């Protein structure tokens, strides 16, 4: 459930007005003769009143675009009045601040040392932003002076009464544009020494195991050439490259943590544009590690979702992976959701936020926002009841841009197309295993010994584990796990290349059988390989798992059979529907009511769908209430088949939501207490 109390109570319907007038002109985007007049009207009371009438309860306003506090002061002073206007209409205001670029042409006139705040690649004066915006330079997050300056920026915004800070451009540059200045080189050497230096027995052992040395006094950060381009390093196996990834993630996280803690200390919310497509190696390319950064913010913006629809293979594609990762950290994603289907998808899969509103919307989009506001607590105050968790392990996905991500995506696609609710877990969240019946580890080749011990203990105590593909082949020191630990004979030498997978000891007869009973009370299933329809990395231009790679494998039946076998007798939800219907099972934490979402991706092609829904529930239910944005609540009768409640839902367009009654809550109640308080 959403951790922030305000967002949990009110949810978010937002409008963005984040670009200052001078940037709109200098970037060349959306510049027109009447721009100044439009810009002024968008900050007027009539416009804010109109937004409030649409149900908007949060706006971003421009505050700092990296031009300098003095240069931007005139526009910043307007924010105080704008905040007052918005608060009169119960709208929260977030101050937009770049967290990744500086406009050197202007900021250097007031901060002559600002050139030391930006990233310095080997081949360029600085790393510029995208869109050929050469007047913007990416920052070096290790700069102490830049961090201190940003503290002044956010303090100025908070003093003007804003409710939160939105950080944009929050990512590092990669490869040929990565900063390799002397400060970064020095800090990297210190980073390596702290982990692998001679100071303790543990660091000495780690250094020898990983590098064969404990001396890092002359190490330089990795560099790339046009012949060895970062995109072509599809599996990162060189230790110094792996540690460079981790170092960059830590530098970025450290900067965000410092600013976020300061902002929260002043009773403001923190939002970051941290959401990038989950099938990209974001630690490698961007220095972004969700396990580190998502706990630091109250909500995150996401501009790179897999949009709801079908890929060229005909597979139904959704943003479920992005939403599930955010859910695991109890934060909502701020998304565009510019179509009715995407709005419905956000309502079903993204507790807390319904998407971006526009000043002029058709009746369908208005109706969906009204639906979100009316039934918001069946979105914002719910917890997942998924029985299946999928482990996406950062160490594995950071060291391999393709295999673990496509293996995970294929398993997720099988579950999505067969309406099996699932959650996504990070390695740091293994303490949640008791919530789940099944843990799936798909293609995570790198795993730590301690994680294997924790998962094995959970299995022996009754958990069920599905291993797909190559799992746990390497340890945290980047070493293959050896079947022969110590070579003493010729026979040992012959077998020296044999790999002993991390979970081998759990299975009595090895992994040559499809299923095996674990040593304790649990079960382990194993699928050696997936037969992918489209494989990434085969084209020289490939650098990520693309939308067209999101397909159920040819042997999807093996995956589904394994999951259903491990859930036998306890499966809480079984939906019979076309593959383009997505199911989500949740429970309202405050009332105990069940919530079953049925999202119809087929509606992107105007295909309405029916669904037969069978569910286990702890209270006998004679009916469920079906809620749709374009219809009155409908009571649907439920009949029993053994210990299952069964009903049928017909004519699903974008979305239908079934509410299962609980004690004292026979009929779902809409939100009727008016809008939020608006402001801190």
Sequence-ordered SSE layout with sheet pairings:
Blueprint: H1 5-10, E1 12-17, H2 21-27, H3 35-41, H4 45-53, E2 58-64, H5 73-88, E3 92-98, E4 101-103, H6 104-110, E5 136-138, H7 144-159, E6 164-168, H8 182-196, H9 201-210, H10 239-265, E7 269-275, H11 282-286, H12 290-293, E8 299-302, E9 309-310, E10 316-317, H13 320-328, E11 333-334, H14 340-349, E12 353-356, H15 363-374, H16 377-380, E13 382-384, E14 388-391, H17 394-399, H18 403-417, E15 422-425, E16 438-442, H19 449-460, E17 464-468, H20 490-494, E18 515-517, E19 523-527, H21 556-566, E20 573-576, E21 581-588, E22 594-600, E23 609-615, E24 623-627, E25 634-637, E26 639-641, E27 644-652, E28 655-660
Parallel strand pairs: 1-2, 1-12, 2-3, 3-6, 6-7, 7-8, 8-11, 14-15, 14-16, 16-17, 17-19
Antiparallel strand pairs: 4-5, 9-10, 13-21, 18-19, 20-23, 21-22, 22-28, 23-27, 24-25, 24-28, 26-27
């Amino acid at each position: 459930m959403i951790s922030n109390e305000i967002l949990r109570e009110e949810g978010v319907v937002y409008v963005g007005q984040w670009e200052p007038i001078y940037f709109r002109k200098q970037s060349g985007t959306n510049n027109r003769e009447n721009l100044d007049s439009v810009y002024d009207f968008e900050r007027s009371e009539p416009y804010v009143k109109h937004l409030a009438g649409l149900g908007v309860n949060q706006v971003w306003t421009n505050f700092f675009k990296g031009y300098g506090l003095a240069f931007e002061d005139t526009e910043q002073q307007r924010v105080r009045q704008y905040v007052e206007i918005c608060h009169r209409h119960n709208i929260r205001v977030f101050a937009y601040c770049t967290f990744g670029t500086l406009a050197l042409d202007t900021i250097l006139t007031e901060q002559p040392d600002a050139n030391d705040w930006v990233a310095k690649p080997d081949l360029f004066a600085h790393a510029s932003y995208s869109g050929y915006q050469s007047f913007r330079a990416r920052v070096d997050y290790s700069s102490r002076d830049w961090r201190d300056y940003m503290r002044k920026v956010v303090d100025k915004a908070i003093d003007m009464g804003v409710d939160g800070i939105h950080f944009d451009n929050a990512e590092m540059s990669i490869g040929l544009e990565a900063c390799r200045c002397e400060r970064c080189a020095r800090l990297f050497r210190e980073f390596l020494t702290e982990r692998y230096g001679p100071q303790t027995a543990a660091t000495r052992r780690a250094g020898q195991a990983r590098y064969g040395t404990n001396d890092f006094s002359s190490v330089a950060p990795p560099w790339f050439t046009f012949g060895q381009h970062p995109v072509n390093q599809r599996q990162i196996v060189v230790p110094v490259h792996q540690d460079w990834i981790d170092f960059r993630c830590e530098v970025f996280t450290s900067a965000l943590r410092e600013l976020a803690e300061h902002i929260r200390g002043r009773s403001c919310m923190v939002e970051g544009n941290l959401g990038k497509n989950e099938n990209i190696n974001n630690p490698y390319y961007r220095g972004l590690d969700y396990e580190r950064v998502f706990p630091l913010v109250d909500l995150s913006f996401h501009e790179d979702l897999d949009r709801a629809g079908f890929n060229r293979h005909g597979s139904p594609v959704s943003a479920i992976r992005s939403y599930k990762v955010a859910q695991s950290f109890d934060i909502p994603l701020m998304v565009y959701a510019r179509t009715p289907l995407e709005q419905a998808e956000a309502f079903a899969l993204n507790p807390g936020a319904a998407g971006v509103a526009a000043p002029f919307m058709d009746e369908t989009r208005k109706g969906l926002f009204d639906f979100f506001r009316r039934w918001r607590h069946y979105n914002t105050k719910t917890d997942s009841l998924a029985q299946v968790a999928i482990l996406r392990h950062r160490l594995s996905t950071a060291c391999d841009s393709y295999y673990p991500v496509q293996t995970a995506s294929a398993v997720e696609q099988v579950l999505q197309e067969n309406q099996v609710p699932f959650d996504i877990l990070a390695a740091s969240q293994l303490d949640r295993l008791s919530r789940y019946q099944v843990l799936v580890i798909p293609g995570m080749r790198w795993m730590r010994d301690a994680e294997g011990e924790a998962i094995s203990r959970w299995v022996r105590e009754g958990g069920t584990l599905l291993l797909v593909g190559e799992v746990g082949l390497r340890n945290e020191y980047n070493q293959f796990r050896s079947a022969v630990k110590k070579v003493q004979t010729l026979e040992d030498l012959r077998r020296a290349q044999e790999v002993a997978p991390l979970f081998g000891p759990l299975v009595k007869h090895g992994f040559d059988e499809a299923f095996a009973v674990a040593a304790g009370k649990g079960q382990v299933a194993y699928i050696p390989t997936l037969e992918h329809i489209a494989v990434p990395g085969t084209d020289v231009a490939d650098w990520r798992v693309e939308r067209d790679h999101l397909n159920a494998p040819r042997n999807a039946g093996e995956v589904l059979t394994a999951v259903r076998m491990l859930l036998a007798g306890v499966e809480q939800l079984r939906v019979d529907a076309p593959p383009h219907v997505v199911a989500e099972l949740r429970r309202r934490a405050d009332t105990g009511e069940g919530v079953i979402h049925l999202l119809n991706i087929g509606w992107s092609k105007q295909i309405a769908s029916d669904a037969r829904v069978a569910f286990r529930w702890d209270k006998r239910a004679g009916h469920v209430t079906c809620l749709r944005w374009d219809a009155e609540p409908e009571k649907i009768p439920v009949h029993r088949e053994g210990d299952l409640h069964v009903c049928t839902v017909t004519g699903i367009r974008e979305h239908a939501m079934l509410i299962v009654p609980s004690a004292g809550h026979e009929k779902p109640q809409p939100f009727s207490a008016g809008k939020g308080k608006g402001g801190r």
